[in-house]
Amino acid sequence: MAYVKDFGAVGDGVADDTVAIQHAVDMGEGIVEFGRGNYRITRTIQVDLAQHSRTSIHGSNGVAKVIMAGSGPAFFFQGTHAKTADPGGFRPEEWEHERMPMVSGIEITGDHPEADGIRIEGVMQPTLRGVLIHQVQTAVHLTSRNRNVIIDHCHFYNNTGVGIHFDGVNLHQTNITGNHISYNRLGGIRIENSEIRNLQITGNDIEYNNNRAHQVPDADSIPTAEIYIHVGEESVREVTIASNTIQATYSPNGANIHLIGTGGGIDHKVGMMAITGNLIGSQETNVHLESVRGVTLTGNYIYSGHHRNLWVQDSRNIVVGSNVIGHNPDYRKNELATGVRFENSKNCILQGTLIQDSQAGMHTVPEAVPIQREGLVEIIGCQGMTFSGVQILEGEPYCLYVENCDDTILNGCTILDQRSPKQSLASIRWKGTGAGNLINGCRIGKGTQTDIESDVELLHPHLIGD
Length: 466
Fold this sequence. Notes:
single chain; about 475 residues; mainly beta; 3 helices; 45 strands
């Protein structure tokens, strides 16, 4: 064990302890121990695992603080792993010298506008536990090739960049569990241009990751999210987002969860994903899916999406089941939900979900820009949509709006306006062309004008445009 003070570190927050700490890493015996104190550094502490062998940073259970007073990361862990996580993909020297570097029980804070927290590159089994990183740009930056990452029980708070940034990384097997990730201006967990498999995001509090607390001029409209995935030319699959609190404050172009794939056709680059058991609320859009394939959204409470609760574009094989989509009653009955929209999507199922807007039909958030919507649930240019056991209540101007869709089936749904006086013109507005559409066994209430308003003749009592 190498105690940094034995190598000349002062820990008074004034002296430059960079050389002493780097000496402790270079000459130590594996564990670099920081006792209580404030350790000021002015350049990155390099942890070259191939050179230094197995190395971990320990902050004496949280009593030590590292102040990064220079640009770049406070700690840079670099390994040489270049293959897969298959046992045959590891060279003996990786197991002997590089496996599982750990950072635990330490605080890292920034005292430079370009300071970062921890960078990890080419490392197998990096583990962060009980780490506080704040007032830097990016708290944790994963790049290049890594494997088997564990981040748990950490606090990534009030940073000008990203909480956890997957940036041009090839990474399999990542667990992000039990963390507080909040007030990071460019996102809580952000994945860009990366090849990711087996990512679990569970049991975290991920909140308020936008510009509102930072007030950077002209930066409100930069797209951000609590969980933001934009793959570029790479792909992200095999993801679980479960049992998290994912909420925010309104920001233009913001979302709680925003998934953006590429490729088009059947080769969407984001998918094989389960989003379940989360509390998701208070953003312009709660869940925004663009060009994704194979996502289940189940068992969530989704509320107060000032533009949309769920917005699905150019996607396929999306299953939305057993959610409650509504507003926050603590903010009185005025705050809008404000509904679900599918555009140009195929083979999607919405089942067992309650979608209910507010009673008064107006926003309580003054900065949220009101939208002109066609209905509480909108299906535009879609094919193979099935709604089963869904309740769509208090829509305006319609509860359900369908336009130019084929093979849309409504079965056992309740679609009506329970307000007094009613505000829906009709429960269903069916517009444009389409074939193979069926309404069966549904409770469809009458609005102020009618129950179903359709451009096409009802060839069967509830068969539309066949």
